[in-house]
Amino acid sequence: MSTRSRSLAHPAEAGRLEIAIPEIRGQVTYLIALHEIGHLVGAGRSAPRLESEANAWVWALENTEVEPTDASLRSIGKRLDGYLHWALARQHRKHPPRIPPEDHVFWRLRRLSGT
Q: What is d(CA 45, CA 38) in angstroms, rounded to the nearest whole number?
């Protein structure tokens, strides 16, 4: 964790979950902070990795107090695109990461990157 980030914890049944929040320097880091909070309190947080990432972004966008700029939305799409590339590179493994079904919000959010 960088010295500029802050850690928030949420009690969980099996222990304690922690997230790292970056220093808020602009809209993108603000949305990233909300996204990390979404991992703790948002719906779908126990979904497979790519789906839970998209679900946390949905929570962030639903709970923001600012209108996201096109650049911020592209940043979200690019981050999800990175997770997709990560998952595709691991499809050869015995237990590969799950690729979201085509009707999952992951794909709609990913298209925000322009890819």
A: 8
